[in-house]
Amino acid sequence: MVRYLLVTCFLLGLGCASAPKPAPTPAVAPAPKLRSLPSADDLPYLSPSEIVKRMQGSPVKYRVEPDDSPPGGAADSLWPMGIQPVDLPRVVVEDGRRVVQEWPLEPKMEALMAQAVKHIEAQRLEEAEKISNQVIAECRDCYLAFEHLGEIALARGEPAAALGHYQKALQLNPDDSQLHYGLGRALVRLGRLKEAREALAWALVLGPRDATLRRLLGEFEGVGMVFKGDVLIPRGFAYKRGEEMVVLYDPLYGPAWLAFGACKALWHADAEHRKEMTGHTEHFFNSIEDFECVSAAAHVHETQKAQNVEGPMDPTLDRLLDVMRDGMFSEMVLFETMSRISPQFTLTLDDEGRRRMWQYVLKHVLVPVGAQGGSAP
What we know:
single chain; 16 helices; mainly alpha; two-stranded antiparallel sheet
């Protein structure tokens, strides 16, 4: 069945062409199995035709099987969660690395703040405010009490006061994504929409897979911004069945995902290729694999468009090409794949890494729109 891949490459004019060589940064976030990886900048990613050549010369049997993909693609199967997020994150430095831990709370303070939350939910704002101020008087590091005061102020229609409370909370813990979301809401209420979008982008950087946050961000279009969601909706997959490596792809979305699936199959089956790329023969999650496989899909899609090759194409990949042209390929891949494996991996990035991720979100995920009216969430 490798011949089917070769025919595809021939039709797309891939021949001896090389795949695009983006310059991704090394993965610095923790994965379920940490390994010491070479710099991704210096790695020679294989083009789709080179992937086929490696498969053709392999003793492994490969089989291509067209298959309908799930509505949301195969992302959950490709990148299953490996590290559970913590509810109240804080970042500490251990052995020169940033590590995510649970924010420490004394049982008494935790119980008081739980009471405050119940009062807020029941709109008993005076009781909630009293408890929150009591917590602050006894525990200056209990940043959640300031967050609660921010929620109370918003409920009372006092966004300026809410802004001050969220800013105090962020001074204590700048790594909690929900604080940035609260700050963004207060700024929206104050009509400071540019600052609001920047704050909400930080919330998404620090909580990239937070389903509630994503849903809430979808409600901000009426105030000048739209949440565009994921760039990658993978329609290709690979798995081992007996002695064969099976490449699944959805033909309704074009050959780009066939190239992606073939690349994934190669990584599963070819220990020599894994050694060349990572320095390790065993197969484990690593961003280098995704850099190569997503790059292969992008190359096929770009070639198909440039040569006006007839046949199905996945229009969502146009957005991937835009990201690559902007030089934000590595940020996109890490934001969408590593965050599924480790939902809070962005907390472990250094300041520059976080800022680049924030710029990516502002440019390609939480983007401005023309409408400026509407009511604030």
